[in-house]
Model the fold of this input.
Amino acid sequence: MMRQLPNAITVLRAALIPLQAWLLLRGDYGLAFALFVVSGLSDLADGWIARRFDLRTRFGAIADPLADKITMLTVALLLATQGWLPWWFALLVVGRDLLIVGGAAAYHFLIGEVEMAPSFVSKLNTALEFGFLAGVLALAAGHLDEGPWFAALLYATAATVIASGASYVLVWSRKAMHERRAATRR
Done:
């Protein structure tokens, strides 16, 4: 039972995505903010439990970042449609994630199995993206006033979105070239 605890937390987090979307569509930003924070804390908890007790699984390695990305994509797109975020930012987030998923799929079908291992810049991007989106939700809920933090986090997060996407392209392109060279030598 304990072995599946991190995966159960991840599945629960993924199951909350439709509720998060519904709250945002209703304009219930206070509850949406609370649920987003719970989602972020559950991400930290399942990762800590998996590492601390060596309960990492292939399912968790795929499902955990997928649940995070779908949560953040949902929140970013809905906040953009409601005018709380600039469209260019939401499209940048979507573009990066499509690039990563498309690249992983191409690698899987053309080269071989993809081992998910987030880089430092990717982890930084996730942290900044979560913090920025939480801040925007808090702003929409009236818990926070707009100030210089908004522009600072917007551009810092956008920079890590770009850097993270570029990092994945470089790392996986190098791996693909290495695997292709190794295959031709055999």
User: Anything to note?
Assistant: The mean pLDDT is 93. The radius of gyration is 18 Å.
